[in-house]
Amino acid sequence: MPGFKCVVNNMVSVCKTTCGDGIVNFDEECDLGNMNGKLQQGCTSDCKIVTGFNCKNNVTSICNSICGDRLVVGVETCDLGADLNGKNNSGCSDRCTVVKGFTCNISVTPTVCTSICGDGIVAGT
Asked: Is the pTM of this model over 0.85?
């Protein structure tokens, strides 16, 4: 059966799921195949969802970062949280991208965004 590896021992068949084959089975949270465990993909090498990601599983997984959770992962360049993303002068859009005229420090949680002085764009307060 696809997604399982079975071994016969003393005439008893023991089957386990195969993490990393791209097929999501009952004990796997996600399975991106050979992309499991790769940086910023959302699924660990043991088929668990990485914090900050949401994975939709049918037969295979599609993992996306969660914009609004204050964790900058995946394709996000900022994340101030659902209450501030997209607000005027926050510096971070509702899609977790840095707004033109701002710079964001993602080395702190939550992200801190400030307007860029001298860039010719009036932004911030």
From this structure: no
Number of domains present in the structure of the chain: 2
pLDDT at position 1 over 60: no
> Are residues 23 and 56 part of one domain?
yes
Comparing 24 with 1, the larger pLDDT belongs to 24
Q: Are residues 71 and 49 in the same domain?
A: no
Do 50 and 85 share a domain, yes or no? no
CA 26 to chain centre: 21
45, 25: one domain: yes
| Residue 2, pLDDT score | 59
Band (86; pLDDT cuts 50, 70, 90): very high
Tokens at residue 123, please?
């932004």
Range of the domain at 104: 67-125
Strand pairing report for 102-105 and 112-115: antiparallel
How far, in Å, CA of 36 to CA of 45, rounded? 5
Q: In 3D, which of 9, 34, 29, 5 has the Cα closest to residue 17?
A: 5
Sign of the CA dihedral 99, 105, 107, 109?
negative
